Amino acid sequence: MSKPTKTELTKYRALLERQLASLRGDVGSMRDEALRASEKDASVDHLADQGTDNYDQGFMLGLIENEEETIQLIEEAIDRIDGKGDWEFGVCPMCQEEAEGSKKKDAAKKDKDAGKKAAAAKKPAKPAAKIDTWIPKPRLEYLPWARYCVRHQEAEERNRDSA
Ligand SMILES: [Zn+2]
Q: pTM (2 decimals)?
């Protein structure tokens, strides 16, 4: 895997912007609909109808919540592309953490071997050298707002489910 090129970043950004606009539109119209449903509730005296309306509304609010979550992920991804995010776009921060962890272990080993060389190796680490921290491009094409690689995304979802 490799760092996304400028051209790729431009493409991902366009995808994200488009998705963001369409989700914002969706959420807006779903809100209107949920609102209309609740206004109707107030004027309708059929209890059965009210039951379905409440159900629809709950369903709709769930959808809105999901979409708002995605909107937030997209906004964060755009920030990352613009260099304003918490990490570089296209990097899996958890892979990066692992890479940094194993680098420290390497440095410790060298410390034992040769003292002077280790001091040089300890200089502020430049971008993770060998270990691949880039999210595979096919994943970014499909899900440009992905925060993690597939492996870490799954780990994250397991965490969330058990929480
Ligand atoms: Zn990862």
A: 0.73
Q: Which pair of tokens denotes residue 118?
A: 């280790």
**Single-letter amino acid, residue 80:** R
Please give the distance, rounded to the nearest whole angstrom, from the Cα atom of residue 161 to the centre of ligand 1: 19
Residue 158 alpha carbon to ligand 1 centre in Å:
14
Mean pLDDT per 10-residue section of the chain, whose length is 163 residues = 92 96 91 81 57 74 92 98 96 92 71 56 52 91 95 91 73
Residues contacting 1, CB < 8 A, separation 6+ = 132, 134, 135, 136, 137
CA–centroid distance, residue 149 to ligand 1 (Å): 4
DSSP the chain: --PPPHHHHHHHHHHHHHHHHHHHHHHHHHHHHHHHHHHHHHH---HHHHHHHHHHHHHHHHHHHHHHHHHHHHHHHHHHHTT-SSS-TTB-HHHHHHHHHHHHHHHHHHHHH-HHHHHHHTSS--S--SS--BPPHHHHHH-TT--S-HHHHHHHHHHHHH-
